[in-house]
Amino acid sequence: MNKNIFAVAIAALGFIIGLGFLGNAIKNRNKSENTISVTGLGTKQFTSDLITWSGSFSKNNSDLKSAYDELAMDRKVINDYLLSKGIQQKEIVFSSVDIQKQFRSYNDANGNYVQGEFSGYNLTQKVSIESKEVSKIENLSRNITEIINRGIEFTSSSPAYFYTKLATVKQEMIASATKDAKERAEKIAENSGSSLGNLKKATMGVIQITAPNSNEDYSYGGTFNTSSKEKEASITIKLEYEVN
């Protein structure tokens, strides 16, 4: 009899403990569900303060030394021209010379490509400039035909624009996006008759830099526009709050 009473007591105690665990589980589940997740957006427009520009020039000659000498003459003309436009010597960088052998090629009667005899050398060199004088380099890139008019086979690339204070911009956008997200969460809680509790989680998105009013697509790893002098940066912050 005593054994039966003891067994019943043990079973009852186990049942009570089980109810306690179940109650805590339900309570914790409801607590985890009683949250608000919001996403805030921070944006900022700014003007690039650094520009890079490059161009290439080449010479062809059957004699390698002659081709190199002719290229060196063009290099001096280009360097002097850039200096005359107010570009500092330390900003002008010439790459190493790329040398390519050329061959006369043709298609045979069956349409197969045939590499013929050696026809000479093609030497190409690149000049690049990095400067904080954005307007000056912009004007230079637009008027580069002055070099071509001097008999130099010159190909100019489009300028690329950058911003050196991007870290500061990012901090400002993070603060703005966080404030935006919190205000959204407070409004949602207020409209539902609740109040915000503790912040549970914050997740930051990647920075996206595009041209203002453009239709550029955002990318998973972040977009970084370099073709536009004027830029617009944006970042998102996702906040998750408990609700009281």
From TrEMBL:
Keywords: Membrane, Transmembrane, Transmembrane helix. The chain crosses the membrane at residues 6-26. GO terms for biological process: DNA damage response. InterPro entries: 26kDa_periplasmic_antigen, SIMPL/DUF541, UCP029033. Gene3D superfamilies: Protein of unknown function (DUF541), domain 1 (3.30.110.170), Protein of unknown function (DUF541), domain 2 (3.30.70.2970). Pfam families: SIMPL (PF04402). PANTHER family: SLR1258 PROTEIN (PTHR34387). This is SIMPL domain-containing protein.
